[in-house]
Design brief:
This protein is α/β, with parallel strands linked by helices. The chain folds into two domains: about 25-215 and about 420-445, Rossmann fold (3-Layer(aba) Sandwich); about 225-415, Glycogen Phosphorylase B (Rossmann fold), CATH 3.40.50.2000. The protein has 21 helices and 14 strands. Strands 3-2-1-4-5-6-7 form a seven-stranded parallel sheet, with helices on both faces. Helix 13 (about 255-265) packs across helix 18 (about 385-400). It is globular. About 45% of the residues are buried.
């Protein structure tokens, strides 16, 4: 009950921001009933609505917060379904963009908005789904959700566990309360040893913690020869002689860096082309204005449905769509991974690395520390320490194509050598499902 009160207070404090973003950007409007009151049987097909019956398929619930996590669990869900075709898989997400991507990615699976951590919403969802397994992508530590899973006899697992040093310190401040939640998690597959140690320090059972490596290596694409990339290349009018720079998952300030580099180099390198993919949709209009202010024409992905006849050096493409970045990396020869020249902690650099692009990113990659370290030490990426380094990096790639190609080949080789986390995770999930009756009362105490 105390948590419900605290959540209500937090929502009341945040309500002005929520109302503003809802009015300005249309956020938070969808799935309100599911979020506040839980999932009901009539939200799904009749077969899932009968999940409580003895002869119904057992349910495995995968939760992915937003776009990044949906992309992360896609391969894991595919592997899990192959290993356990008897299970009905359902997918939840927390954001509009994550929901839209999940609906398009999992066409034959039920997709819904995850309930907020109010006891009544969580309990209603468990009563409807009656899952035997709940898999949380990376880390979604909601005390009521995890506690009620135990009450309903549902195993809880974290896949591709990620816990930063900063987040661990925050949890440790409330260890008297939060450690119990960590202890209730049945299995945690961590990306590396440091993360595993942080989970244990925060209260997780050491016997429930394992090191699987990062599923992101398994999810990284390896071939540019796909229909999706071909369609993008045709739409953008990419010629074989173009050297395309993709600035992806950019945050505020990073688009200016990419535009400054392009302005400085495009006159002397006529083969250079630039496409920008901002991280958040609410910044699309702002970035379009930045492109025009820099003296370039902007070609917006959402406004131009037909392919271009040519891609001129005075035009910058703005990818103002959601869920396409993975395929846009596929036309890049040079990749700048955003979120790394600010406080975000970096974004996934494995997708352009898997394609064999020449990859660079800024100084702050704490959210992908182990991945960045492996790429850097293996000679598969370059870290930029200052904004000026971006211009120098792109210029070198243009002036020394063999060096850029070697960087890309090494990046792809590193990705291939670290695959296997998905298989390890599915094996552990299978073991969880194979264990006998769960002592719900002791776990929920």
């Amino acid at each position: 009950m105390l948590l419900n009160i605290l959540y209500c207070i937090a929502l009341w404090i945040a309500s002005p921001l929520v109302i503003y973003r809802s009015a300005r950007y249309g956020r938070y409007r969808r799935g309100v009933r599911q979020k506040f009151f839980g999932v009901r049987a009539d939200d799904f097909s009749p077969s899932l609505a009968d999940s409580s019956s003895a002869d119904s398929a057992p349910v495995a619930w995968f939760h992915a917060v937003s776009v990044g996590e949906v992309n992360l669990v896609a391969g894991l869900i595919d592997s899990f379904r192959k290993a356990h075709p008897e299970y009905q898989v359902v997918v939840s997400t927390s954001t509009d963009t994550g929901y839209d991507l999940a609906k398009s990615r999992f066409l034959d699976l039920p997709v819904f908005f995850c309930p907020l951590d109010f006891t009544w919403a969580v309990d209603q969802t468990f009563q409807t789904l009656r899952p035997r397994l709940l898999v949380l992508a990376e880390l979604e530590l909601w005390p009521n959700l995890i506690k009620h899973a135990g009450k309903w006899g549902c195993r809880v697992a974290i896949a591709n566990g990620r816990l930063s040093e900063r987040s661990a310190r925050s949890y440790l401040r409330f260890s008297a309360v939060i450690a119990r939640t960590f202890a209730r998690i049945d299995w945690i597959g961590c990306q590396d040893a440091e993360i595993a140690e942080r989970f244990v320090d925060c209260g997780a059972n050491a016997n429930a913690v394992a090191i699987t490596g990062s599923i992101k290596f398994d999810n990284a694409p390896l071939s540019r020869d796909t229909p999706e990339i071909s369609r993008i290349a045709r739409w953008a009018a990419v010629d074989p002689w173009h050297q395309v720079v993709i600035a992806g998952s950019t945050q505020n300030g990073e688009e200016e860096l990419a535009l400054a580099t392009y302005r400085q180099l495009s006159a002397s390198h006529r083969e250079l082309r630039l496409a920008i993919v901002p991280r958040h949709r609410e910044r699309f209009d702002q970035v379009a204005a930045l492109i025009q202010a820099a003296g370039f024409q902007v070609r917006r992905r959402s406004e131009h449905l037909t392919p271009a006849e040519h891609w001129s050096s005075d035009t910058v493409i703005l990818v103002d769509s959601v869920g396409e970045l993975r395929n846009w990396w596929g036309i890049s020869r040079i990749a700048f991974v955003g979120g790394s020249f600010g406080d975000r902690g970096g974004q996934n650099m494995l997708e352009p690395a898997g394609y064999g692009s020449a990859v660079c990113f800024g100084p702050n990659t704490q959210n992908f520390r182990d991945i960045a370290r492996r790429l850097l030490t293996g000679g598969g990426a370059v870290r930029l320490n200052t904004p000026a380094d971006l211009t120098a990096f792109v210029a070198r790639c243009l002036d020394e194509p063999p060096a850029a190609d070697a960087l890309g080949r090494q990046a792809r080789s590193i990705v291939m050598s670290h695959r296997g986390a998905t298989e390890k995770t599915v094996q552990q999930l299978s073991r969880l499902l194979g264990v006998g009756a769960i002592q719900s009362k002791s776990r929920a105490a």
